[in-house]
């Protein structure tokens, strides 16, 4: 049997695999049985041709639900379950999604190859506000219609059509990324199962007293007429007076201006303060002012404690309140206007002082009857701004403006409108106890957060958690299963019940009314809440609902609960992950929903800018995979919902970023490059050129197999071989097996510790630097000969390098590894007896199979040999001597005990590699250095060649080109004198620098050591050149 280590790789008859033999297809599964892709081995790597066909074949064969244990006699390991963070059906996937799927697919493929029972559940999110917003923009752009023109039912139907179109595109993109998902369990957050789970969860939380209704200040988007979450708020910094274009307005709105106006003090003292001046950037909100605040310790205003001021426009008295939390004495005048219905800080102040809280804006941002000026009611809030200023000026209360005020404005990320703090009744979830449980689970180690730096963020957020506003005033989303009980006007009108339908709600209403002491047959009407639930509520149930949980208390928790790893971007740790933890804990009796929470960085462009359509730097993964021209990217912009002015700006940015478009890189290159970037834990600055560079790695791997398959077909190896038993392995074979063992160790460790970028680095170094650049070059001499004592061992080791490289790389680069593995299986007898139909269900190399090959001593010895070979080639190159010209070499080694012995053992191999006519190993340097040309490897290892042989070879080379010998000597002397002058100048500069006063006290030790080494090397080089010049002179004289 083929054995690499203490555990043999056994190729036994496969156990019957029900997943493969009895696979049931859903409506999205392919109906036509697909042949396994069969392609000729192409002379060069072509990503498109390589990747074609494999995904559909994997899926149809049921391999996404199989594991390596199905094709060996090893027992299956424990279940491993993950869910995809469901992409929003607002459009296409972007490069951030590609990062997510690259990381997660690598994780599940690695576990599949390690024998785990893998279930990776895919899904998409209905994304309430996001999807409604893009569909509204689409309707307006294409048909000139608003949602109100269509009505709710017709509008929701339009969104379902949109979801069908873009949901399918998203699923196509997932497949193109190679995501090995369990498609038979695909979910949509508004499908029937998930809808039932959401309804039941809401009703249970309501019954448990955790969901309640309250009227509070919320983030309100007047353009969309809904409350929005904090994650949907963008901030824009304003540097002084700036005109900002807002949606639905023909004229821009002014920001960055601080207006000052005054309130007259009621009954002022004779020599006291007559007026209080306040400042505001939103002067129109002064119509809702109910008080002014001062600091209780401010000596300037001690006389105003308990006093009142006149509202200049509304002609009413409002109190002066003392509030140390709101007012900073040193800021401005130390007086603050209080508008509690339109500012969160003012709202908190009003609650502390029992001040009246009345909104002066309606849901669309127009003034209502509370504004106190009847003729302004119904007018837009920004349009009345000038009217307010004019009235204040007429009254003598306006005190001027500051046009250089620096401020930050909050914008709705969906509509672009200004966020208005607004008082609205909403549904809330009490999070206080839920947060404590989720925090303690991390403290107790029941859930682990990686990277660990985010653990403190988790604690900080949960310690300061506010109750969650879970309702939205949208048409698209999960309708809230709540009904208001309408009674006669003299009764309490804030009575609410829940119900799966109206009949169920009526029954619950009767029970509630009876509990409240109402008459048994009192008449009432039920009015269903028209609001929908926050998108995060439905996605917060996914650890349960993705596995089919319906929310009913009588049903069991799914068997695949908890999820082993929850992988997502760190930006939604609180908005999604924490809420999943809180909700799941409540419904499972505090069973943590995740074993590990793994967070990746945010993807930005090469300049570190946030990716935005208006900047033209949003990258579609398919564009990187398939390639795209600049013209096509511009055409795609025209099909978007961006405003015309932003399309123009975006096109200009595209021209700067991608003047030649994006070249086709393939899925494997994109995945590998993205995973390499994960060493950056906060921000990934993605440069497409790095993805292009990774495609060269794929090409390197391809060329390795082009070479290896040819050699292994010419001289097939036996399937039953054990490299451990080969006592005649050469140094280079031992070296590459040691490097292989080290690489296996690093890759396994990288996956176990969730540091996947370490696996990409170890794999690239092994394939490129160790196998291709070293081992293949060394093996060519052996494999090119018909008979060679080491040929069979070299073929076996070459095969091992190819086989192990593929299995290590498969989780990271599934397509090219599958193609090459299938080529090996088809063409090499050693692989044809394998039962595994795909590399996907091969065993991942483990350290216990390879650890006995690791030998640091062997690696050190071989590196010394390699350094001698490189030095010999460098010596030839510098002196322009062909690599085929044999020269006599002397190797001087000052470490005879640790290195001299091994070098002597491999002297014959070194002689062959350096093309030596004669080679000697000495522990003493030549006495007359003037007769030798030396190449210094380090202070303990040098190689010498008689200078006469060097110059003779050079002159022979010149003669073959028809050059006069004396002329050649003169040219050579000029070159060497020029080089000598440079070395002497460098040496002099370095000595001068090192002799400066204070050098040894001020320069770091590492720099001093580096400079000392350079002095030695330059001195040796100077001596060598001087000796060579003496030889040239002697030859010239003769």
Automatic annotation (TrEMBL):
Residues 734-887 form the Methionyl/Valyl/Leucyl/Isoleucyl-tRNA synthetase anticodon-binding domain. InterPro entries: aa-tRNA-synth_I_CS (IPR001412), aa-tRNA-synth_Ia (IPR002300), Anticodon_Ia_Val (IPR033705), M/V/L/I-tRNA-synth_anticd-bd (IPR013155), Rossmann-like_a/b/a_fold (IPR014729), tRNAsynth_Ia_anticodon-bd (IPR009080), Val/Leu/Ile-tRNA-synth_edit (IPR009008), Valyl-tRNA_ligase (IPR002303). It catalyses: tRNA(Val) + L-valine + ATP = L-valyl-tRNA(Val) + AMP + diphosphate. Keywords: Aminoacyl-tRNA synthetase, ATP-binding, Coiled coil, Ligase, Nucleotide-binding, Protein biosynthesis. One of its GO terms (biological process) is valyl-tRNA aminoacylation. Its EC number is 6.1.1.9. Its main location: cytoplasm. Residues 54-687 form the Aminoacyl-tRNA synthetase class Ia domain. Pfam families: Anticodon_1 (PF08264), tRNA-synt_1 (PF00133). It is found in: Cytoplasm. GO terms for molecular function: aminoacyl-tRNA deacylase activity; ATP binding; valine-tRNA ligase activity. One of its GO terms (cellular component) is cytosol. Residues 966-993 form a coiled coil. HAMAP family: Val_tRNA_synth_type1 (MF_02004). Belongs to the class-I aminoacyl-tRNA synthetase family. This is valine--tRNA ligase. It comes from Rhizopus stolonifer (Rhizopus nigricans).
């Amino acid at each position: 049997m083929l054995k690499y280590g203490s555990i043999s790789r056994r190729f036994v008859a496969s156990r019957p695999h029900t997943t493969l033999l009895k696979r049931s297809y859903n409506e999205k599964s392919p109906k036509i049985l697909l042949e396994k892709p069969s392609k000729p081995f192409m002379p060069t790597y072509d990503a498109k041709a390589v990747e074609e066909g494999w995904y559909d074949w994997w899926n149809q064969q049921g391999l996404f639900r199989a594991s390596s244990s199905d094709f060996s006699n090893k027992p299956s390991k424990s279940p491993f379950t993950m869910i995809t963070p469901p992409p929003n059906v607002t459009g296409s996937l972007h490069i951030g999604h590609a990062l997510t799927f690259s990381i997660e697919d690598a994780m599940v493929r690695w576990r599949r190859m390690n024998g785990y029972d893998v279930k990776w559940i895919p899904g998409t999110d209905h994304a309430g506000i996001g999807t409604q917003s893009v569909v509204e923009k689409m309707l307006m752009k294409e048909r000139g219609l608003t949602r109100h023109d269509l009505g709710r039912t017709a509008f929701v139907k339009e969104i379902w059509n949109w979801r069908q179109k873009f949901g399918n595109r998203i699923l196509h993109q997932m497949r193109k990324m190679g995501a090995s998902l369990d498609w038979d369990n695909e979910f949509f957050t508004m499908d029937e199962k998930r809808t039932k789970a959401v309804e039941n969860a809401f009703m249970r939380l309501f019954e448990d007293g955790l969901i309640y209704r309250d009227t509070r200040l919320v983030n309100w988007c007047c353009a969309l007429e809904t409350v929005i979450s904090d994650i949907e708020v963008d901030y824009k910094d304003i540097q002084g007076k700036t005109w900002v274009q807002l949606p639905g307005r023909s004229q821009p709105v002014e920001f960055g201006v601080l207006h000052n106006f005054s309130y007259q003090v009621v009954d002022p003292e004779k020599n006291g303060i007559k007026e209080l001046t306040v400042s505001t950037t939103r002067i129109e909100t002064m119509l809702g002012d109910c008080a002014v605040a001062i600091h209780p310790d401010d000596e300037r205003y001690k006389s105003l404690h308990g006093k009142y001021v006149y509202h200049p426009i509304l002609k009413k008295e409002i109190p002066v309140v003392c509030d140390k939390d709101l007012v900073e004495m040193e800021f401005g005048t130390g007086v603050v206007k209080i508008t509690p219905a339109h500012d969160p800080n003012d709202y908190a102040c009003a609650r502390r002082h029992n001040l009246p809280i009345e909104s002066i804006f309606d849901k669309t941002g127009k003034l209502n009857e509370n504004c106190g000026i009847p003729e302004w009611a119904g007018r837009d809030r920004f349009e009345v701004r000038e009217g307010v200023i004019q009235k204040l000026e007429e009254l003598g209360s306006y005190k001027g403006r500051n046009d250089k005020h620096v401020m930050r404005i909050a914008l709705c990320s969906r509509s672009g409108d200004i966020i208005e703090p607004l008082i609205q009744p909403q549904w809330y979830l009490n999070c206080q106890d839920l947060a404590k449980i989720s925090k303690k689970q991390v403290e107790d180690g029941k859930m682990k957060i990686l990277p660990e730096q985010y653990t403190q963020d988790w604690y900080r957020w949960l310690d300061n958690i506010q109750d969650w506003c879970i309702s939205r005033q949208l048409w698209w989303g999960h309708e809230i299963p709540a009904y208001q009980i309408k009674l006669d006007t003299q009764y309490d009108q804030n009575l609410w019940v829940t119900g799966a339908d109206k009949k169920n709600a009526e029954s619950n209403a009767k029970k509630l009314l009876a509990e409240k002491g109402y008459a048994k047959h009192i008449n009432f009407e039920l009015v269903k809440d028209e609001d929908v639930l926050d998108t995060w509520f439905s996605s917060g149930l996914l650890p349960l609902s993705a596995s089919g949980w319906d929310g009913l208390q009588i049903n069991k928790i799914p068997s695949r609960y908890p999820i082993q790893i929850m992988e997502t971007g760190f930006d939604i740790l609180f908005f999604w992950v924490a809420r999943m933890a809180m909700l799941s804990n409540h419904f499972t009796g505090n069973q943590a929903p995740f074993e590990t929470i793994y967070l990746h960085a945010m993807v930005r462009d090469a300049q570190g800018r946030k990716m935005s359509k208006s900047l033209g730097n949003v990258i579609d993964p398919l564009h990187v995979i398939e390639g795209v021209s600049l013209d096509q990217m511009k055409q795609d912009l025209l099909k978007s919902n961006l405003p015309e002015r932003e399309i123009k700006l975006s096109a200009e940015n595209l021209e700067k970023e991608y003047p030649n478009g994006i070249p086709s890189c393939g899925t494997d290159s994109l995945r590998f490059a993205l995973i390499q970037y994960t060493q950056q834990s906060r921000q990934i600055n993605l440069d497409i050129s790095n993805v292009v560079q990774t495609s060269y790695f794929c090409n390197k791997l391809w060329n390795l197999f082009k070479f290896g398959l040819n050699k292994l077909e010419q001289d097939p190896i036996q399937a039953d071989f054990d490299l451990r038993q080969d006592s005649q392995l050469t140094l280079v074979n031992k070296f590459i097996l040691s490097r292989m063992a080290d690489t296996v160790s690093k890759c396994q460790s990288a996956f176990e510790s969730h540091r996947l970028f370490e696996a990409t680095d170890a794999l690239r170094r092994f394939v490129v630097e160790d196998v291709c650049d070293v081992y293949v070059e060394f093996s060519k001499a052996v494999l090119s000969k018909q008979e060679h004592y080491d040929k069979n061992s070299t073929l076996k080791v070459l095969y091992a390098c190819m086989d192990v490289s593929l299995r290590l790389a498969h989780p990271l680069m599934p397509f090219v590894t599958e193609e090459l593995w299938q080529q090996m299986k088809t063409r090499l007898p050693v692989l044809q007896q394998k039962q595994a139909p795909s590399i996907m269900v091969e065993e991942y190399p483990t350290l216990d199979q390879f650890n006995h090959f690791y030998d640091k001593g062997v690696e050190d010895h071989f590196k010394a040999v390699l350094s001698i070979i490189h030095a010999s080639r460098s010596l030839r190159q510098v002196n322009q001597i062909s690599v085929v010209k044999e020269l006599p070499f002397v190797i001087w080694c000052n470490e005879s005990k640790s290195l001299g012995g091994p070098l002597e053992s491999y002297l014959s191999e070194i002689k062959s590699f350096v093309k030596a006519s004669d080679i000697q190993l000495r522990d003493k340097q030549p006495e007359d250095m003037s007769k030798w040309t030396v190449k210094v490897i380090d202070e303990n290892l040098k190689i010498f060649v008689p200078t006469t042989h060097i110059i003779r070879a050079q002159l022979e080379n010149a003669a073959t080109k028809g050059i006069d010998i004396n002329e050649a000597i003169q040219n050579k002397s000029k070159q060497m004198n020029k080089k000598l002058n440079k070395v002497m100048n460098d040496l002099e500069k370095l000595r001068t620098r090192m002799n400066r006063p204070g050098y040894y006290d001020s320069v770091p030790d590492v720099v001093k050591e580096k400079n000392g080494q350079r002095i030695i090397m330059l001195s040796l080089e100077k001596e060598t050149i001087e000796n060579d010049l003496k030889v040239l002179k002697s030859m010239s004289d003769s």
